[in-house]
């Protein structure tokens, strides 16, 4: 059973790296969807012996939203905006990959040192959670287009979900619901925003939006 | 205490209701006046009884704010500072209803009245708060509400500038107060006033912080720059309230902190005397050089705060040198002057507002001859002028007299140091009094006497009743304190004893003040009787004669012109040129040349040198410094996120390594 978990975690890490390395938006969305599915299904492995209704509901809600609804919303936004690629990111793709490697190392190091209450299901889970969060934040920082900001936000949300997996038993349902609602609203609102920004300004460059201030 | 809370609730509720009824003028005015008058009537008896009995009330509710508690207290000192608020606020409200009628339909008056009520409620809360967090919250809300009132005419650029100056000044002051209260709260780990105490740190540092923090609000001389900007910019009833009572919260705060700090070293007293002398003399000098009547009054606020500081200085020195009589008289004078200034400065600002209302100008040089056209305003303005110049039979004389008496007592009983105090204080007070009298001779003379200098003044008519009533009430109060001086000072006994930190029932100062005050009151009564007799005699003599009126400025000319009258600058010129070194008045124009001069002109202006030569360069330098760091905050969201992430990562790594 643990091998399956580790394999899933390895896939998530690979997904993180490819998020950093690809410019095609639809590919990014698919990677995120895959991550979402994997992370959504993980609780099933943890609780293979003692499946409760709560776990099942959680898994269903999370896989449907992250694996199907969010990708669908975002793909629609990308198609509507008619911009398939992030052409000029703040940090280029090769440097992004290098930084991604460094972040992975940092996450592993931190994950090993971070004191946690109780025993984790997998020793790498914390490291992966940290790494996914960092990659999400890095995407927000290093990309210009509004849609990639949303993607970064979703990656970060995936990281937080992974953290949640570590404490699956301890986390109150309310907190889970809160995070979930947060992500849902963010994607919903940002999806609309992306669509409207594009319609209004004929581009999706957030740097040029700062001209609206001052 | 419950009445006090009810008053606060009434004020805030009234303000909110006024906001809701913003468009219905009658209803809104009714609500505002009802809440102001109601709050005043409910709280005034409480304050008076507290002062008379010399007792304290306290109330403490828990509050979820860290280190905060909703602790209120009413001791004689708080009650005393409540008095001017409760007297002036409803009067300014009545006046404001008439004054703001001109803006009806053009401005959101509901918002203005909301902030007015909030301001009054916050001032009350400031003087009764017994917890530093509550105090600072009320203090900040007071500053923000008054800022909103100052920028009432926000379509004018100079008003916005004045508001900004005020906002910056008040926040710098509040910054000092934050540090002060943190330092005071440290030893006991609590910010309730009862637990405040000086820790290991230097007491003088705390004193300096209090002087800077509260002095900015009060308007001590180098920190006064916001006063002459903000007071002319705001509507008159707001200027009256701000100048009459809001700046006194600074004095209250200083007194409260002095009570916490305990026995003062002589240096503090000397500091206050120095501040008082500087603020007083320079304040009145700058007032003398102004052409805008409200700006002139604003500088007089600086002057009067200087007089109060002189009184405090004398009182503190009395405590340092263990001279209870001197301490008593100094504090009594300072405190009484707080109340007096609220009355006569409120009166003068309202009077100036009435003039501006009737003539649509604040330039003294455009006015003239208004006493005939506006007898009520003119007479009450004259009463206020006499009071602020410290002339009997009005109240200004009594408080300044007490400070004189304190300083002289010190000089007589103390020897060396006392003689120095006496010389500085009496010298400064004398100079201030004389210059103030000259200044108001100028202001009153140019505005109300002579012939109208412009169309504005010629077409003026007396203002409506809602503007007149507060003027008359305030003038009567000024006169009443002047005539009832011995009773008033005796009544304030508990306040003075508390503020001065003297043992109660110490008769030294009271015994010393009693007989001369009775003489003062008697003299004032005689003076008043003489004036009354003269008026009656004149009326009797003129009763059966025909009365002809002639030009006021005749002087033997065949065809006198109104432009032959003194101008404000001309009238003050002998004095302003004497103090040229301090004022640095700018003169522009063409001088008179030749035997048959053709064209000549003169324009003078006296901008505040502190503002121009200290604050402006400093703020410009700070601005340039920060402009170079603008790239840090360039408006890129990505960069901001990077800052946050880097901070978090560094903290995480630091914690785990």
Outline the structure in words.
The complex is a heterodimer of chains A (214) and B (657). Chain A has one domain. Chain A is built from eight helices and no strands. Chain A has helices spanning 2-21, 25-46, 53-81, 93-113, 125-142, 146-166, 173-201, 206-209. In chain A, helix 1 runs antiparallel to helix 2 and helix 5 (125-142) runs antiparallel to helix 6. Chain A starts with a helix and ends in a 5-residue tail after the last helix. The model of chain A has no long low-confidence stretch (mean pLDDT 78). Among the domains of chain B are: 270-537, no CATH class; 612-656, no CATH class. The model of chain B has no long low-confidence stretch (mean pLDDT 87). Chain B is 72% helix and 3% strand. In chain B, the strands form two sheets. Chain B has a two-stranded antiparallel sheet with strand order 1-2. Chain B has a two-stranded antiparallel ribbon with strand order 3-4. With 657 residues, chain B is mainly alpha-helical. The termini of chain B are far apart. Chain B contains 26 helices and four strands. Chains A and B meet through helix 4 and helix 5 of A and helix 26 of B.
Name the average pLDDT of chain A: 78
For the residues shown, what is the average pLDDT of chain B? Answer: 87
Class per helix and strand makeup of chain A: mainly alpha
Number of helices of chain A: 8
| Distinct helical segment count of chain B | 26
- Quaternary structure type: heterodimer
How are the strands of the largest sheet of chain B arranged? 1-2
Euclidean distance between termini CA atoms of chain B:
56 Å
Q: Please provide the count of β strands of chain B.
A: 4
Order of SSEs of chain A: HHHHHHHH
List segments of chain A where confidence is low: pLDDT < 50 over at least 5 consecutive residues: none
Kindly give the count of domains of chain A: 1
Shape annotation of chain A: globular
State which percent range the strand residues of chain A make up.
under 5%
Secondary-structure content class of chain B: mainly alpha
Main sheet summary of chain B? 2 strands, antiparallel
The count of strands of chain A amounts to 0
C-alpha geometry of chain B: globular
Terminal Cα separation of chain A, in Å? Answer: 57 Å
- The radius of gyration of chain A is 17 Å
């Amino acid at each position: 059973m643990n091998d399956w978990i580790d394999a899933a975690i390895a896939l998530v890490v690979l997904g993180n790296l490819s998020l950093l390395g690809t410019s095609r938006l639809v590919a990014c969305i698919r990677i995120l969807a895959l991550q979402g599915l994997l992370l959504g299904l993980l609780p099933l492995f943890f609780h293979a012996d003692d499946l409760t209704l709560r776990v099942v509901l959680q898994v269903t809600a999370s896989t449907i939203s992250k694996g199907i609804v969010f990708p669908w919303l975002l793909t629609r936004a990308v198609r509507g905006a008619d911009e398939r690629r992030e052409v000029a990111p703040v940090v280029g793709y090769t440097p992004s990959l290098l930084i991604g490697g460094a972040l992975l190392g940092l996450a592993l190091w931190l994950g090993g040192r971070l004191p946690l209450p109780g025993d984790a299901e997998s020793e790498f889970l914390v490291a992966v959670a940290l790494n996914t969060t960092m990659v999400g934040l890095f995407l927000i920082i290093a990309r210009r287009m509004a849609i990639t900001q949303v993607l970064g936000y979703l990656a970060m949300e995936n990281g937080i979900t992974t953290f949640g997996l570590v404490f699956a038993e301890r986390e109150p349902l309310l907190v889970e619901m809160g995070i979930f609602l947060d992500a849902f609203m963010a994607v919903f609102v940002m999806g609309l925003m992306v669509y409207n920004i594009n319609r209004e300004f004929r581009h999706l460059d957030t740097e040029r939006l700062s001209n609206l201030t001052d | 205490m419950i009445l006090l809370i009810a008053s606060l609730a009434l004020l805030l509720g009234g303000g909110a209701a006024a906001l809701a009824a913003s468009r219905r003028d009658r209803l809104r005015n009714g609500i505002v006046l009802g809440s102001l008058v109601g709050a005043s009537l409910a709280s005034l008896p409480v304050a008076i009884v507290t002062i008379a009995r010399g007792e304290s009330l306290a109330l403490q509710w828990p509050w979820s704010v860290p280190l905060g508690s909703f602790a209120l207290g009413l001791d004689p000192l708080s009650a005393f500072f409540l008095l001017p608020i409760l007297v002036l606020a409803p009067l300014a409200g009545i006046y404001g209803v008439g004054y703001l009628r001109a803006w009806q339909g053009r401005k959101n008056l509901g918002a203005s009245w909301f902030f007015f009520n909030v301001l009054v409620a916050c001032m009350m809360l400031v003087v009764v708060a017994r917890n530093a967090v509550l105090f600072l919250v009320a203090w900040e809300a007071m500053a923000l509400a008054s800022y909103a009132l100052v920028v009432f005419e926000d379509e004018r650029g100079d008003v916005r500038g004045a508001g900004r100056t005020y906002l910056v000044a008040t926040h710098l002051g509040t910054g000092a107060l934050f540090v002060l209260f943190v330092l005071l709260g440290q030893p006991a780990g609590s910010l309730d006033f009862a637990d405040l105490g000086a820790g290991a740190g230097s007491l003088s540092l705390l004193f300096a912080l209090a002087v800077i923090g509260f002095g900015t609000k009060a308007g001590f001389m180098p920190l006064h720059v916001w006063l002459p900007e903000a007071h002319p910019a705001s509507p008159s009833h707001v200027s009256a309230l701000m100048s009459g009572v809001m700046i006194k919260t600074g004095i209250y705060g200083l007194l409260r902190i002095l009570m916490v700090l305990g026995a003062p070293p002589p240096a503090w007293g000397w500091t206050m005397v120095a501040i008082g002398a500087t603020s007083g003399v320079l304040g009145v000098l700058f007032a003398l050089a102004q052409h805008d009547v409200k700006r002139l009054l604003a500088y007089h606020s600086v002057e009067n705060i200087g007089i109060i500081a002189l009184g405090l200085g004398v009182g503190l020195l009395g405590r340092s040198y263990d001279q209870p009589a001197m301490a008593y008289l100094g504090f009594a004078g300072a405190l009484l002057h707080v109340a007096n200034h609220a009355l006569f400065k409120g009166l003068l600002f309202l009077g100036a507002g009435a003039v501006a209302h009737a003539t649509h100008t604040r330039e003294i040089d455009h006015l003239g001859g208004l006493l005939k056209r506006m007898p009520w305003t003119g007479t009450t303005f004259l009463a206020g002028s006499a009071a602020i110049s410290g002339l009997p039979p009005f109240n200004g004389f009594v408080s300044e007299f007490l400070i004189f008496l304190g300083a002289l007592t010190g000089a007589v009983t103390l020897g060396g140091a006392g003689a120095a105090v006496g010389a500085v204080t009496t010298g400064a007070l004398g100079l201030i009094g004389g210059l103030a009298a000259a200044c108001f001779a100028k202001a009153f003379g140019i505005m109300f006497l002579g012939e109208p200098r412009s169309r504005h003044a010629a077409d003026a008519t007396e203002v409506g009743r809602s503007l007149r009533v507060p003027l008359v009430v305030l003038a009567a109060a000024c006169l009443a304190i002047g005539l009832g001086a011995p009773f008033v000072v005796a009544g304030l006994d508990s306040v003075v004893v508390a503020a001065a930190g003297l043992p109660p029932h110490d008769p030294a100062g009271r015994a010393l003040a009693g007989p001369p005050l009775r003489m003062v009151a008697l003299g004032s009564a005689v003076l008043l009787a003489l004036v009354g007799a003269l008026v009656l005699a004149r009326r009797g003599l003129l009763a059966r004669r025909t009365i002809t009126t002639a030009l006021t400025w005749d002087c033997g000319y065949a065809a006198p012109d109104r432009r032959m009258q003194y101008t404000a600058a001309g009238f003050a010129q002998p004095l302003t040129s004497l103090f040229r070194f301090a004022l640095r008045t700018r003169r522009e124009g063409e001088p008179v040349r030749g035997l048959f001069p053709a064209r000549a002109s003169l324009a003078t202006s006296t901008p505040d040198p502190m503002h121009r030569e200290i604050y402006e360069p400093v703020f410009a330098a700070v601005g340039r410094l920060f402009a170079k760091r603008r790239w840090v905050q360039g408006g890129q969201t990505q960069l901001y996120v990077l800052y946050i992430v880097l901070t978090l990562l560094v903290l995480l790594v630091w914690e785990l390594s």
